[in-house]
Design goal:
By secondary structure, this protein is α/β, with parallel strands linked by helices. It is 45% helix and 16% strand. The protein is flat and about 85 Å long.
Length: 453
């Protein structure tokens, strides 16, 4: 983005494109009110009051709207902001946006509204990233935990650490710069301070793995020989007909993926049936993809036909799972007359086996509950701090620097040398919050936003 463009008045559609009850066009910048006055029939804007009227183009009415004015700096971006609430038809929204652009605004870039909020100190970078997390969250639970960062939980935690580091640095600097007036801090004080700071950083990093699971989810591959009901189970878990199901063996030739919300995003993977004598080249390629899916998955669901029992072909597939976390699924249980049927005797010898019917839905909830326990048993209430990989890397940089400072204090190193590591730790935290950051990193973050946010 050109530097001069950052002061332009920008506009974009802030609601999803499509048919809906309400559509919103957002305008931000010095000319937001001026542009709106040209196209609105009731442009008497006041603080904390909305305006009702018509959007007009050369005297012709376009739509009846409600306008919400926000005066700088008390707006989302910190600039003058206008939100036009119109009817949700796609053509109506586009007509109003084009009218706004024609009268002096330019089209906003991805994430530019939130970027301006960050640049205008309305939020720090961790809060801006939380906005993207909320928008792109694949599960309701991740949306809830992302709100913690939007409300400033991580920001406050980082500021507390920074204040502790800055206090130590101030005492070291004062002792170095004014040796006749201020004594250098005792090394025991430095050691205890650095240990406390490391403990504070570790407290935030303790939720890193859980944060990554909430953000990235887990993968669950459904495998088995052909025609045991893998695709039927895939559809049953998703409650939709996503995969083609027939009684012809080898219907699935490629990997099919969908996300299942079990509190964290679970990527379900439907695979081609595994058999050594694949009929053609395409099926053989699909089988290789299936084997790779087994390697990559966090959990594997091995499916067999409970009405026929485990045979040698099933055992061949099972042999691929010996080093993988897996569940055994006895499918087509609706065909079996009773639970004592000899064909499912295998089930009684396996603690991790679930008997179900993908056709009737029997046992599907049991499987979902087991999946939740196996790969999703995470309580969001216990996750104090939510971090992403960029933030975790910044925290680890800060921790490494403080560890070096601690080592220096333990061996009674010159304090001006110790101060170098302490300053480096502060810079790492400033990179996390956005006090010190490059344009490349900033653009990379906001490029992941949608236009209009």
């Amino acid at each position: 983005m050109n530097i001069k463009d950052e002061f332009d008045t920008i506009a974009a559609i802030a609601t999803p494109i499509g048919t809906g009850g309400v559509g919103i066009i957002r305008i931000s910048g010095d000319k937001a009110f001026e542009i709106t006055e040209k196209i609105f029939t009731n442009p008497k804007f006041e603080q904390r009051k909305f305006n009702h009227g018509w959007i007009i183009d050369n005297g012709q009415r376009i739509d009846e709207v409600i306008i919400l004015p926000f005066f700088a700096p008390n707006s989302y971006t910190g600039e003058h902001v206008i939100e036009i609430q119109c009817h949700g038809g796609i053509n109506v929204i586009k007509n109003i946006l084009n009218l706004v652009l024609k009268n002096g605004a330019r089209m906003a870039e991805k994430g530019e509204f939130t970027k301006r909020a960050f640049l205008n100190k309305r939020m720090d970078l961790s809060q801006a990233e939380a906005v993207a997390d909320i928008i792109h969250s694949k599960t309701s639970e991740f949306a809830k935990v992302s709100v913690k960062n939007l409300s400033g939980t991580l920001k406050d935690g980082i500021n507390n650490i920074r204040n502790e580091i800055f206090e130590v640095l101030s005492k070291i600097t004062a002792g170095i710069d004014f040796p006749e007036e201020v004594r250098e801090p005792e090394y025991n004080y430095l050691i205890s301070s650095f240990e406390k700071i490391i403990s504070m950083i570790d407290r935030i990093l303790s939720g890193a793995n859980t944060s990554n699971i909430f953000r990235q989810g887990v993968s669950v591959a459904i495998v088995g020989k052909p025609n045991v009901g893998k695709s039927s189970l895939f559809n049953a878990l998703l409650s939709l007909d996503r995969a083609i199901v027939t009684d012809i063996a080898g219907t699935t030739r490629d990997i099919i993926k969908e996300t299942l919300d079990l509190g964290i995003p679970v990527t379900l993977i439907d695979t081609a049936g595994i058999r050594e004598d694949g009929e053609n080249k395409v099926e053989k390629i699909g089988i290789e993809y299936s084997k790779q899916a087994i390697e990559d998955a966090d959990l594997v669901l091995f499916v067999y036909d409970a009405s026929k029992g485990i045979n040698e072909d099933d055992k061949e597939v099972l042999s691929l799972l010996k080093d993988k976390k897996h569940l055994i699924i006895a499918n087509k249980a609706d065909i079996i007359e009773s639970a004592s049927h000899p064909n499912i005797i295998y089930r009684s010898n396996e603690e991790n086996c679930i008997c179900l019917s993908a056709l009737t839905g029997m046992g599907i909830n049991d499987l979902k509950n087991e999946l939740t326990k196996r790969v999703c048993d995470i309580n969001p209430e216990n996750l104090e701090f939510v971090t992403n990989t960029r933030q975790q890397e910044c925290l680890r940089k800060a921790r490494n620097s403080i560890e070096q400072a601690l080592l220096g204090a333990q061996i009674r190193q010159l304090q001006d040398l110790i101060s170098i590591d302490v300053k480096t730790a502060i810079l790492a935290l400033d990179e996390l919050t956005g006090e010190l950051i490059t344009d490349d990193i900033l653009n990379n973050i906001f490029d992941n936003f949608c236009i209009g946010k």
